Amino acid sequence: GQNIDQPTEMTATEGAIVQINCTYQTSGFNGLFWYQQHAGEAPTFLSYNVLDGLEEKGRFSSFLSRSKGYSYLLLKELQMKDSASYLCAVRDDPGGSYIPTFGRGTSLIVHP
Amino acid sequence: EAGVTQSPTHLIKTRGQQATLRCSPISGHTSVYWYQQALGLGLQFLLWYDEGEERNRGNFPPRFSGRQFPNYSSELNVNALELEDSALYLCASSLVGTGGNEQFFGPGTRLTVL
Q: Which residues contact A95 (CB under 8 A, 6 or more apart)?
């Protein structure tokens, strides 16, 4: 089975930097995804990590350490529109199932 | 290019009834996934269809079923509805076999069981 943990809620100030952590325990590993989901909307893809290290995409970066079962999503220069739920999802894919398992999500509140 | 579409947007049923939810994937995507997102819970995987076949199933009772049509659209059926089936049902599509297998989600169907 899989166990994915991320904080339930975080708050941050507009313009600041926030790091959302995700730890996982899986029988295998074949990629970690981050999705953003605004209230009442569909999740949208942010990043995919399969190798250790940092992937940067504009204001958002995602880091992975496979040996530690750990990832984080870094959001810089926070904007009010970044208030959303951030979902960490891990694919262990031992049999080619391509099905990621999602964590419960971290609700980020950005205030002025 | 049109994204993943789902219908209806909202669905209200009573206990014991049956619900049918529909999903059209992005053109060219052969895989369709169904997830349930209940309040306070993460996305729970329900079903995966690819090329018309059920490829994988999550930990849900048999009253959750579905199918994929030749045009790759899909239907999720929930029989004998229970109150705890109230949730947002999300459909996603992807290209199987590509690196990352990014899933593109539809807007969801909000099912309320009274």
A: none
| Mean of pLDDT over chain A | 92
How many whole angstroms from its chain centre is CA B5? 11
CB-count exposure of residue B102 (10 Å: 0-12, 13-18, 19+): middle
Q: Are A55 and A62 in contact (CB under 8 A)?
A: yes
Write the DSSP symbol of residue B17: -
User: How close does chain B come to A47, measured CA to CA in Å?
Assistant: 9
Q: What is the dihedral of CA B81, B75, B44, B27, to 10 degrees?
A: -160
Look up residue A94 and give its two tokens.
Answer: 């031992």
Over residues A52-103, the pLDDT tens digits come to 999 998 999 999 999 999 999 999 999 999 999 999 999 876 666 678 889 9
CA distance A52 to B111: 40
Which H or E run contains A57? strand A53-57
- Alpha-carbon distance of A106 to A86, in angstroms, equals 5
Judging contacts by C-beta atoms under 8 Å, the chain A residues touching residue B101 are 31, 91, 98
How far lies A54's CA from each of A62, B32, B113, in Å? 6, 30, 44
Query: In terms of Cα–Cα distance, which of A4, A32, A28 is closest to A96?
Result: A28
Q: Which residues of A touch B105 (CB under 8 A)?
A: 35, 42-44
List, in sequence order, the alpha helices (H) in A6-61. none
Tokens standing for residue B10 = 């909202």
